[in-house]
Amino acid sequence: MNIGYDAKRAFHNSTGLGYYSRTLVGLLSKQYPEHQYYLFNPKPSSKFRLEGDNLHEVVPHGFLNTLFRSAWRSSWVKEDLKKNKIDLYHGPSHEIPLGIQNTGIKSVVTIHDLIHERFPEQYNPVDVKIYNRKFRYACKHADKVIAISEQTKRDIIEFYKTPEEKVVVCYQSCDPAFSVTASAEEKKRIALKYGLPPEFFLYVGSVIERKNLLNICKAFFLLRDELDIPLVVIGDGGKYKQLVKDFIRQHALEKRIIFLSERETVRIDAEFRSPAVFAAIYQSAIAMIYPSFFEGFGAPVLEALWSRLPVITSNVSCLPEVGGDAAYYVDPSQAEEIAAGMKKIYNDPQFAETMRQKGWQHALRSTPEIYAANMMDIYKSVL
After folding, report:
1. Which helix (H) or strand (E) holds 90?
2. Which residues make beta-bridge pairs with 144?
3. From CA 157, how far away is CA 155, in angstroms rounded?
4. Is the pLDDT of residue 15 over 80?
């Protein structure tokens, strides 16, 4: 089988959508080497590399395709799909080429979330209209719609009236590196290279309002006289990040909140983007704090569970799906509950160890092998 992918984000995106695409293609190409995987990339990239005997990168050729790369990706790519005899096309980030349903090529699309529908005020109004059009089109014309959680499936059915039988939930996994225990020497090397403190809590994610870093900082302020442990933040943002920084400055928390992604050694270092480095950082932390107000999935929670790292997360949205019985759940609007979770995990080693063990057992339900097999079953179901 020749399987094609929209690979823009796989090659260019360092956040969740890019990670999803790279992990998916990497797992499938290794677990099912009998198939050929074609990565349709609108522009060459040196940021990420995907290599393998059965992986084939396809970029635009010809004057018009090269000049109008966006049009090639969103529509004209159909000619290249035909040339490469693609049997199935997967849009791993919410969209499929216009008119693909008229080519005879089957297609599936992954919808990660409909946050722009639930919280349109957090987006540029023009972006909301664009997302709405692309997502609706994909859900209408793809042969199968993949939701990454039951929450997202419910939203697809509610907002787009997509027939329930057309939507299938496929929980994602994470890079196998997160299940590998880093040696003490490796963790020490990474701590020295990136300037990590001896003990720290961890936040991983974009610094945007929905992900709720401000209430984490408020929890640190509440604990200012009880826990002298910093928070390491991996992620970046814009206006909301500045709001968070204003709170940090006004409450003298500069030494307790470390924006690791701002450091020059991190920003210019290619190794930092590797799953093995992230896994070692997770395994060096006390707990992951991820009290998001809404998620399509919440990949850092699963990564933390795989890393045997206790997780404090929200009792809303899909996060209880991801954390199962292994996470410490809080009301994301209550900084006091976040603070209580931090104290409990730090001061009760036995409780923390129980969380690690439960987390590992829960993570085993989403092994890379199970994930790849479920995805391949979906592919075969539409052919």
Report:
1. strand 88-91
2. 108
3. 5
4. no
Share of the chain above pLDDT 90, in %: 85
d(Cα 204, Cα 20) in Å, to the nearest integer?
A: 15
Nearest partner of 258 among 195, 336, 352, 181, judged by Cα: 195
Neighbour count for residue 337 (Cβ, 10 Å): 20
CB 82 within 8 A of CB 65: no
Q: Say how far apart CA 355 and CA 308 lie, in whole Å.
A: 8
CA distances 293 to 127, 154, 288, Å, are: 21, 17, 16
SS3 312: strand
The residues facing 147 across adjacent strands are 111, 169
As a whole number of Å, the end-to-end CA separation of the chain is 10
Instruction: Say if residue 360 is exposed, middle or buried (CB neighbours under 10 Å; 0-12, 13-18, 19+).
Output: middle
Cα 103 to Cα 35, 65, 97: the distances in Å are: 21, 19, 11
Going along the chain from its start, the domains and CATH numbers come out as 2-173+368-382 (3.40.50.2000), 176-365 (3.40.50.2000)
Please give the distance of CA 28 from its chain centroid, rounded to a whole number. Answer: 18
**Where does the pLDDT of residue 163 fall: very low under 50, low under 70, confident under 90, or very high at 90 and above?**
very high
The pTM (predicted TM-score) of the whole model is 0.84
| Dihedral sign for Cα atoms in the order 343, 344, 345, 346 | positive
E strand or H helix at 309: none
Q: Which structure tokens are listed for 184?
A: 């003490």
Q: Can you give the pLDDT at residue 256?
A: 96
Tokens standing for residue 111: 């919808």
